[in-house]
Amino acid sequence: MIVHLLDGTYELFRHFYGLRRFNKGKDAPFGAVIGVLHSVLQMLETGATHIGVATDHVIESFRNELWSDYKTGEGVERVLMAQFHPLEEALADMGVAVWPMIELEADDGLASAAHIASSDGRVEKVCIWTPDKDLAQSVRGNRVVQVDRRGLKIRDAEAVREKFGVEPALIPDYLALVGDAQDGYPGIPGIGSKTAAQLLNRHGPIESFPEAVLGKRRDLALLFKNLATLRTDAPLFRDVEELRWRGPTNAFAARAEQMGAPRLLERSLKAHAARGTPAK
Predict the structure, then answer these.
(1) Are 59 and 216 in contact (CB under 8 A)?
(2) Taking the mean position of all CA atoms in its chain, how far away is CA 245?
(3) Does position 223 have pLDDT exceeding 70, yes or no?
(4) What is the pLDDT of residues 76-112, one digit of tens each?
C-alpha cells in the first residue's frame, strides 16, 4: 500500500492565496477549506487509499519557548486563520484521518506519521505532500519521499542530496547552519549553503565538528539544530489501517451544506461507491 501524508496548513495557505487571484478581495468564509477538500477527493478518486492530514491547530509550538523569534501566528490574515479549525472538522467528517497539532507543529505530525507508517512492512511507499525543506529530513531512499504539487516533483534521497548537498539525515544540521527565514532563525553568520554542505560532508553532524570550526557559536548552532529537528514520536495512530479512507461520515452532508458546497458530498459518495468499501 502507499500512504499519503498531507500538510494541511500548507494546503490551506495554497488554496487561500490561489483563490485571491479570482475573488477580487472578497474571501469566502470556507473558500480555502473547500479547495483543500476537493484536492483530497481528487487523490481519493485517482486511487489513494490511505491518507492522513496534519494541521497546525495553533501556530505556536514548544519551539517558541526555545527561541523567542521563532515563527508565530502574527501576520496571518484573520480570514485565513478562521479556516484552520473548520478544515480539521470538515476532514474528520469526510472520513479522513486528521491530526490537529498543538504543542508540536504540523511538520512534526507528518514526520511522526511517516515514521510510524514506514516501520510497517505492508507499506510500500510513504508520500509526504509538502514542499517544506524541513521534511527532507524524513526522506528515506525512495520509500519515504516528498511530493511537491508544483510540477508534481518527487524528492527521494538522491534528489535531497542533489538539492541540498547533504544526506536527508543531515538536513537539521544544514538548516541550523544556513538558517530558515520562514521559521524565524538566522543560522550561523558567514556560513552559506555551499560551506554548510562542505562542513557536514567532511565532519558529519554538528556535534562532531572540531571545536575550531564554530568556536563560541557551537551552542547557538546546536540550538538551531534542535529547532530544525522534527519530532517523530507523536502517537498519532497505532495501525496504518486507521488511515484507510472508508467514505464520508453521516455528518458530512450537513457539513457540506453549511459550507455551501454540495459538490463535495456528491464527489465523496461517488468515490466511496467506486471502491466498494464499508462505510464508517
Answers:
(1) no
(2) 19
(3) yes
(4) 999 999 999 999 999 999 999 999 999 999 999 999 9
The reported pLDDT for the residue numbered 27 is: 82
Backbone angles phi, psi at 121, to 5 degrees: -65, -20
Mean pLDDT across the chain, nearest whole number? 95
pLDDT for the residue 47: 93
Strands across the sheet containing 50-56: 97-101, 50-56, 2-7, 125-129, 144-148, 153-155
Residue 128: what are its φ and ψ, rounded to 5°?
-100, 110
Q: Which residues contact 258 (CB under 8 A, 6 or more apart)?
A: none
When pLDDT is averaged across residues 246-255 and rounded to a whole number, the result is 97
Indicate the DSSP class of residue 278. P
140 DSSP assignment: B
Residues in the chain: 280
pLDDT above 70 (res 277):
no
Q: Which three cell numbers stand for residue 267?
A: 464527489
pLDDT tens readout for residues 22-44: 887 788 889 999 999 999 999 99
DSSP 162-211: HHHSS-GGGHHHHHHHH-BTTTTB---TT--HHHHHHHHHHH-SGGGS-H
Count the neighbouring beta carbons within 10 Å of the beta carbon of residue 91.
Answer: 26
Grid coordinates of 268:
465523496
131-155 average pLDDT score: 93
Within 10 angstroms of residue 164's Cβ, the number of other Cβ atoms is: 21
Do residues 13 and 41 make contact, with C-beta atoms less than 8 angstroms apart?
no
CA distance 166 to 174: 8
For residue 243, count other CB atoms closer than 10 A to its CB: 23
- State the CB neighbour count (10 A cutoff) for residue 258: 14
Model confidence at 280: pLDDT above 70: no
